[in-house]
Amino acid sequence: MNKQYQCVIFDWDGTLMDSEARIVSSIQIAAKRANYPVLPYDVSKQIIGLSLEKAILTLYPEADAAGIKSISEGYTQCFLEESEVPMLPFEGAERLLKSLKSQGTKLAIATGKSRRGLDQVLDEVGFVDYFDLTRTPVESESKPSPLMLQQILEAFSLEPEQAVMIGDTEFDMQMAASINMDRVALSHGVHELERLQSFDPVACFDDLHAMHAWLANNIMPHEVKKI
């Protein structure tokens, strides 16, 4: 039996945006500038999806307040202002969002990015108008806390079963599972498929194209809108 979702909630980095390389590069540069060891790529990327402070403490549990501040400021400067590492939406991202929006589906983002970082990148790629609501740890809590999802549901007057969370990390899967919200796993991002499957997603896909077809059959029909 097909689902009847009224709201689709997306993670951002690793789900809609192919930003892994820039995030890892920025955290490595920031750590070096703050005189902390530069961790390997595969280690550094595991924190993508968490708030910046939580990510820093996960990688550098020995960091004190001054160290966290130094790495955080260095990361923000590098990622938003200095980095030349390319960062683009995954293929099919805009087509997917445009299709869902045209069908009247509520669209939201629950991300570990800062508010400044999310707003800047949404503006840069021209995706601002696709989303009805976005949440970051700045006005909520870091994943895997489900607070961002709960805030989105409250804003739309929906129950967990009326929405679906789409993400590429176990943090996305865990936050949705904790409030019994359906979740869809994407394997083109940060965490391996086996890790995502341990949280019993309703579906797993290798890319946005395959997921698009599934979503088209699992959202509540609305009057088609021109956008």
From TrEMBL:
<dbReference type="GO" id="GO:0008967">
    <property type="term" value="F:phosphoglycolate phosphatase activity"/>
</dbReference>
<dbReference type="InterPro" id="IPR050155">
    <property type="entry name" value="HAD-like_hydrolase_sf"/>
</dbReference>
<dbReference type="InterPro" id="IPR006439">
    <property type="entry name" value="HAD-SF_hydro_IA"/>
</dbReference>
<dbReference type="Pfam" id="PF13419">
    <property type="entry name" value="HAD_2"/>
</dbReference>
<protein>
    <submittedName>
        <fullName>Phosphoglycolate phosphatase</fullName>
        <ecNumber>3.1.3.18</ecNumber>
    </submittedName>
</protein>
<dbReference type="InterPro" id="IPR023198">
    <property type="entry name" value="PGP-like_dom2"/>
</dbReference>
<dbReference type="GO" id="GO:0005829">
    <property type="term" value="C:cytosol"/>
</dbReference>
<dbReference type="GO" id="GO:0006281">
    <property type="term" value="P:DNA repair"/>
</dbReference>
<dbReference type="InterPro" id="IPR036412">
    <property type="entry name" value="HAD-like_sf"/>
</dbReference>
<dbReference type="InterPro" id="IPR023214">
    <property type="entry name" value="HAD_sf"/>
</dbReference>
<keyword id="KW-0378">Hydrolase</keyword>
<dbReference type="InterPro" id="IPR041492">
    <property type="entry name" value="HAD_2"/>
</dbReference>
